[in-house]
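agent> Task received from the user: take the single chain below, predict its 3D structure, and emit structure tokens. No templates, no multimer pairing.
agent> Plan: (1) validate residues, (2) run structure prediction, (3) serialize to tokens, (4) report one or two observations.
agent> Step 1 OK, no nonstandard residues flagged.
tool_call: predict_structure(input=
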Amino acid sequence: MNRISCDVVQDLLPLYYDDICSETSKGLVEEHLADCADCRYSLEQLKSSLSLPIQDMEVNKLEGKGLQSIKRMWSRTRSMAFMKGLFVAASVCGMLIVGYFGLFRWNILPVSSEHIIISDIRTISSGEIAFRVQIRDGYSFAHVKNTVKDDGSFYMTPVHPLIISKKYNAFNPVNGEMFVNPLNVRAYQKKYGKNVEITSIYYGSPDHPILIWKKGMELPTVSR
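)
tool_result: status=success, residues=224
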């Protein structure tokens, strides 16, 4: 065979590498490659350049797996952050609700006796002790806390929220007539395990109560 030039072999190398050239061309290329180091180098370069996409595919596959792992981790982190945010929001809402009721609606603070006016204390023929109450501190009331001490002292303590509610301070259900029957109070306490004779009745805070009645005290008696 006649020796061909390097330019012709360079043109035939891609066809030779893909094994799609004729047998004659293949023989000429192989004969030339046996004696030409430059063309053999070109063939190696061709092999390297064609195999590079396969390597890139493997690298991309690994990178894709890494990105998928990061995506899953990000999704878990985002879900955890959402749950934490939801928990914090619920906690804040709960504290706001508790704070609102604690400050404005829950009756927990005893009324100071200096704001309480007791008048017209009397005994009714039915055995009840009646009296009039006026509370003048600007709060509204919805609850009177009753306490019986071991010595038979019965305390009626009006309580109000920590902060005045403008919506309700025009109406005070505690003001007005109050009626207490010592026998009924004892019967109620006995029902729940505390059988104590009621010997005195106080209105206001146990720290500075106002005496309404004490056993042996004579009060005006009126019919109901």
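agent> Step 4: summary for the user.
The CA atoms of residues 124 and 222 lie 5 Å apart.
agent> Done.
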